[in-house]
Design goal:
Chain A: It comes from Streptomyces ureilyticus. The complex is a heterodimer of chains A (505) and B (339). Chain A has 505 residues and is of the alpha/beta class. Chain A contains 17 helices and 24 strands. Chain B has a domain of 218 residues. Chain B is globular, with a radius of gyration of 21 Å. Classes of the chains: A alpha/beta (505), B mainly alpha (339). At the A-B interface, strand 2, helix 10, helix 11, strand 20 and helix 14 of A face helix 1, helix 12 and helix 13 of B.
C-alpha cells in the first residue's frame, strides 16, 4: 500500500461551532482500495469529519489533498464530482420518489436536456441493485414503502451511480439484520477489489475486525490514533483510546456506609422490547449506582423508561413502594424523580430563557398563588439552588445559553435540587463539560448523594463510572452482564465486559 | 475542549444594561429595542396622518374609530399570540368569529337579549377552541391542519345558519353599547374591553405559571415534557384561550356592526398572525410579547385608516402591509443574530 500515493489526505482539519470545537486538528489518510475505519464515541467528531469530507461543512482550517492535489470541497456536489460519496446514518432519501428517481436525483439521465429518461434510469438502477445483491428491489417502487435495509441499499446504489472512488458509510450496519450485514460486507469487499476506498464508521469492533484494514480513533475532536492495523490491534487498546482519558480526574472520596436506608427506587423486570432486557435494580438514598456500557447498549433508554419518558413493555418502577404510572413523566416527577438528560440543549434547557426560569420550571407550583407567580420568591430560590452548586456566573438572570457546558448542567441539577427530588437520573452528566469543570461536577454529585439523594449514573466513560459510583451495572446490548461494587472493578475488566459481554464467573 | 473562555465573554454585555444606573438604560432594557421601534413606527404614522389629513385624522371621532376597529382584531391577536408563543398556529380565528357572530344573532338567540348574545358568542368561541385543542393536544394533529379544518367547517356552518343573509340585531341594549352615548370619558366600551383583554393577556403571559408553561412548551416542548409539564393539557388550554378571544371579538363585532354575517372576520387569521409577528413573537415559538402584538394591531389599523382618508385603494394598503411584514421580519432576524 505504501508504494501508492494516498487517495485522500486530510491534515489539520479544524471546525468549530458556537461553543464547541468539534474538530481540533484531525489528520486522516486513505489509500485506494482500503477499508479505513473511524471509531469514536458520540460527539467525538466523526460526523463532523465526514460532513467536511462530503462538502456539507467547510473546515475552519486544514488542508484536503485528493489524489495528490489540494482541493476545496465547497459543496456536496463538488465532493460528488470528485468521486466522494457519503451514505449517512439518517438516510437522505426522498420517500415520495421511486427507487430509480432517488438513485438519479440531481443527475437524471435526460433527453433533450430536460426530459427525464425514465426507462433508462430504471434499467441502470436495476443493474446497480443487481450488483449490490438485491435484484428483487423494484426500481419503480416508492422508497417510502421499502424496509430500512432496502433503503440503505438504495442509498448505496445512489453512491455507485456516480463514478465513485471513495464511499463514506456512517454506521451502515446499525439498521441491518445479521445476514444483511453479511451482504453489506460482500459489497464492501467487491468495491475495494475494484480499487474503491471505503471509510467505515461503526461502534461494533467485531465488524471492524472483519472488514477493516486500518483504524483511526477520534476522541474529543482529535485523532488520538491514526492508521492502526484493524485486525491486530488489541480490543482493549482500541477501547481505551476511545474512552480513555489523558487527564487523571479527582473523584470525591466515597463515604463508608454501614447501613443504607431502605430503597427509595425499585425497578422490577423493567423492559422495552428491542431496547433492553428485563432489568432489576434498587437504589438507596445516599447511593450512586453507575450504568456502564457502550453507545447502543440501552443505557439512555433505561433511564428514560424509569423516568416515564418511554413506556415500558414489561415491568414496573416503584418509588418508596408506590408503583409509578408507566410512561408518565409527571407521575415520576411528582414521586421525586429527576432526569438530567443526555442531550442537554434538546431535552432539558429552554435556551431562550434565563437560568432562573430554567431552574424553576419544575417547581412552579411552589411559587404560584392560584397561578400567580411570586417572581421574587422564584428568583431567590433559584439563586439559592444555583449558589449551592456554585453555578457561574453568580447571576441567575443571565440567559442559560451563555453558560458553559458545566454550568448548564449545574442549572439542570439545580432544577431538581429546587424541586426537592429524591432520585436523580444522570445521563452522561459530563458530556460537553470542560475537563477542568468535571471534578467540580463530580464533587457536586457526591455531595448530593451524601445529603440523601439516590443517584443513577450513566456514562460511556468507564473511569467516570468507576470513580464516582458505589455500585456498577455493566450493560451490553440491552442486558446487564455484570453487577459489582465499584471497588472490585477496574477499567480493563469493565472494557472486557462491555465489549465481549462474558458474564462474571 | 477549549470552552473556558466563552462564558465571561458572552455575559458581560448582557449584564451591564440591567445594572446600569442610567434610568434611560433601565427603560431600554425593560422595553426592548423592538417595542421602542414599534412605538416609533406608530408615532411616525400618526405624524404622517396628521400632516396629510390634519383635520380628519386627528379628529376625536376618527381616533375613536381607529381604536374601535383595532379592538375586534386586537382581542383575536392577544389569543393568537399565546398560541404562536407555544409553537402553534390558529388559522381558524376568523371563521370562529364569523360562526360565533351569526350564532349569537339568530332570531332564537336574540330572544334571550343582551346576555343571550354575549353568552352564545363566548360559548361558540370556546367550543370551537375546545375542538381545536382536543384534536391538536390529544389527537396529535398538526395545528396547521386541525385549525385549517376548523376554518373550513366553521365558515360552512356560519353560511348554513345565515343562508348568506345579514342577521340584523334588534336587541336595543346591544345596539346602544356601540352608540356614542355609551362612551365613558370619550372612550368607547369596545376599546375598554380590548384594553382589559390586553392587560389580562399581559399578566397571564408574564406573571402566571400558565404563561411560563406556554413559553416553555413553545421554546422546547421535549424539555418541558421532561421537566414534568403536562404539555398536552397546556396545548388544549391554549386553543381554548384562542377560541375564547374569538368569542369575545365576535361579540364586539356584533355590537360594532349591529349585525351578524357569515363573511365576518374574513382573513382575521392573517391579520392576527401578521400583527403578532411584527410585534416580535417568534413564529417558531418560545418568545413573544402582548405589547408588541397590540402595537402591531394598532400600526395596521392606523395604516388602513390613513390610506382610507387619503382615498388610496385597498390594493395599495395590502402592498404596504406586506412590505411592513417583510421589513419587520428582516429586523427580527438581525436582532436574533446579534443576541
Amino acid at each position: 500500500m505504501a508504494s501508492e500515493p494516498p487517495l485522500l489526505t486530510m491534515s489539520g482539519i479544524t471546525k468549530s461551532f458556537p461553543g464547541v470545537r468539534a474538530l481540533d486538528g484531525v489528520d486522516l489518510d486513505v489509500q485506494p482500495g482500503e477499508v479505513h475505519c473511524l471509531l469514536g464515541q458520540n460527539g467525538a467528531g466523526k460526523s463532523t469529519l465526514i460532513k467536511v469530507l462530503a462538502g456539507a461543512h467547510q473546515p475552519d482550517s486544514g488542508t484536503i489533498n485528493w489524489r495528490g492535489a489540494p482541493v476545496t470541497l465547497r459543496s456536496p456536489i463538488a465532493a460528488m464530482r470528485l468521486g466522494i460519496a457519503t451514505i449517512y446514518q439518517e438516510l437522505d432519501l426522498v420517500e415520495g420518489l421511486s427507487v430509480a428517481e432517488n438513485v438519479y436525483l440531481g443527475h437524471e439521465p435526460t433527453a433533450a436536456g430536460f426530459v427525464v429518461r425514465r426507462k433508462g434510469a430504471r434499467a441502470s438502477t436495476a443493474a446497480l441493485l443487481k450488483r449490490l445483491g438485491h435484484p428483487e428491489i423494484d426500481p419503480a417502487r416508492l422508497v417510502g414503502d421499502l424496509s430500512a435495509a432496502h433503503q440503505q441499499i438504495v442509498s448505496m446504489a445512489r453512491a455507485l451511480s456516480h463514478d465513485v472512488r471513495l464511499i463514506v458509510m456512517d454506521e451502515p450496519s446499525a439498521a441491518l439484520d445479521p445476514d444483511e450485514v453479511d451482504n453489506l460486507f460482500r459489497i464492501v469487499g467487491d468495491l475495494t477489489a475494484d480499487g474503491v476506498a471505503v471509510i467505515y464508521i461503526s461502534h461494533r469492533l467485531e465488524e471492524i475486525r472483519r472488514i477493516g484494514d486500518r483504524v483511526t480513533v477520534l476522541k474529543d475532536g482529535r485523532a488520538v490514533a491514526g492508521g492502526l492495523p484493524a485486525k491486530s490491534t488489541p480490543t482493549r487498546e482500541v477501547v481505551a483510546l476511545m474512552t480513555g482519558r489523558n487527564v487523571e480526574y479527582v473523584f470525591p472520596e466515597r463515604p463508608v456506609h454501614d447501613a443504607l436506608p431502605d430503597p427509595v427506587l425499585e425497578v422490577k423486570g423493567l423492559a422495552r422490547e428491542g431496547e433492553f432486557a428485563p432489568l432489576d435494580l434498587t437504589l438507596r438514598p445516599g447511593e450512586i449506582v453507575g450504568l456502564a456500557g457502550l453507545v447502543g447498549s440501552g443505557r439512555s433508554e433505561i433511564l428514560e423508561t424509569i423516568y416515564g419518558a418511554r413506556k415500558p413493555t414489561a415491568g414496573q418502577v416503584l418509588v418508596e413502594g408506590r408503583r409509578l404510572k408507566p410512561g408518565s413523566v409527571r407521575d415520576a416527577v411528582r414521586a421525586g424523580l429527576g432526569l438530567a438528560p443526555e442531550e442537554r440543549k434538546a431535552q432539558a434547557l429552554l435556551m431562550l430563557e434565563s437560568v432562573t426560569r430554567n431552574v424553576s420550571v419544575s417547581s412552579m407550583s411552589r411559587f404560584s398563588y392560584g397561578g400567580w407567580l411570586d417572581r421574587s420568591g422564584e428568583r431567590e430560590a433559584a439563586l439559592k439552588a444555583t449558589r449551592e452548586l456554585s453555578l457561574r456566573p453568580d447571576n441567575p438572570s443571565v440567559p442559560v445559553r451563555t453558560l458553559s457546558g458545566g454550568n448548564q448542567q449545574k442549572a439542570v441539577l439545580a432544577r431538581w435540587l429546587l424541586r426537592g427530588c429524591r432520585v436523580l437520573l444522570l445521563d452522561e452528566p459530563t458530556r460537553g463539560v470542560d475537563v477542568g469543570a468535571r471534578a467540580e461536577l463530580y464533587a457536586v454529585i457526591r455531595r448530593l448523594a451524601d445529603e440523601g439523594l439516590a443517584v443513577l449514573l450513566v456514562s460511556s466513560e468507564v473511569p467516570e463510572v468507576l470513580g464516582l459510583a458505589d455500585r456498577v451495572l455493566v450493560l451490553r446490548e440491552g442486558q446487564v452482564v455484570h453487577t459489582a461494587p465499584a471497588q472490585e472493578l477496574d477499567e480493563p475488566r469493565v472494557l472486557d465486559l462491555v465489549m465481549e459481554g462474558t458474564p462474571a464467573s | 475542549m477549549t470552552q473556558h473562555a466563552s462564558p465571561p465573554r458572552d455575559d458581560t454585555p448582557k449584564m451591564s444594561p440591567m445594572e446600569g444606573p442610567s434610568p434611560w438604560r433601565a427603560l431600554t432594557a425593560r422595553a426592548d429595542v423592538r417595542t421602542l421601534s414599534l412605538l416609533g413606527v406608530l408615532a411616525a404614522l400618526i405624524i404622517i396622518g396628521g400632516i396629510t389629513k390634519p383635520d380628519q385624522f386627528l379628529d376625536t371621532r376618527n381616533l375613536q374609530l381607529v381604536l374601535t376597529q383595532a379592538s375586534v382584531i386586537g382581542v383575536v391577536t392577544v389569543g393568537m399570540t399565546f398560541v404562536i408563543v407555544s409553537g402553534g398556529i390558529d388559522l381558524s380565528v376568523g371563521a370562529i368569529v364569523a360562526l360565533a357572530s351569526v350564532w349569537a344573532t339568530t332570531v332564537a338567540t336574540q330572544e334571550f337579549g343582551f346576555l343571550g348574545i354575549l353568552f352564545t358568542s363566548v360559548i361558540v368561541g370556546v367550543g370551537c377552541g375546545l375542538v381545536n385543542g382536543m384534536l391538536i393536544a390529544y389527537g396529535a394533529m398538526v395545528p396547521f391542519i386541525a385549525t385549517l379544518a376548523m376554518l373550513a367547517s366553521a365558515r360552512g356552518l356560519a353560511l348554513q345558519i345565515t343562508d348568506g343573509s345579514t342577521q340584523v340585531v334588534t336587541v336595543q341594549s346591544v345596539l346602544d353599547l356601540g352608540g356614542r352615548d355609551s362612551y365613558i370619558l370619550g372612550i368607547p366600551p369596545l376599546v375598554m374591553v380590548f384594553a382589559v383583554v390586553t392587560v389580562i393577556g399581559w399578566l397571564l403571559l408574564n406573571r402566571t405559571t400558565f404563561g411560563r408553561r406556554t413559553v416553555a412548551v413553545g421554546g422546547n416542548a421535549e424539555a418541558a415534557r421532561l421537566a414534568g409539564i403536562d404539555v398536552r393539557r397546556q396545548r388544549l388550554y391554549l386553543y381554548l384561550l384562542s377560541g375564547l378571544c374569538c368569542g369575545i371579538a365576535a361579540f364586539l363585532l356584533v355590537v360594532l356592526s349591529g349585525s351578524g354575517q357569515n363573511t365576518n372576520g374574513n382573513l382575521y387569521e392573517l391579520d392576527a398572525i401578521a400583527a403578532a409577528i411584527i410585534g416580535g413573537t417568534l413564529l417558531s415559538g418560545g418568545r413573544g410579547t402582548i405589547v408588541g402584538s397590540v402595537l402591531g394591531v394598532l400600526i395596521f389599523t392606523t395604516i388602513t385608516n390613513i390610506f382610507a382618508l387619503n382615498n388610496l385603494q385597498s390594493d395599495v394598503q395590502q402592498i404596504a402591509k406586506g412590505a411592513i411584514i417583510v421589513a419587520a421580519v428582516l429586523v427580527q432576524r438581525r436582532t436574533a443574530h446579534t443576541t
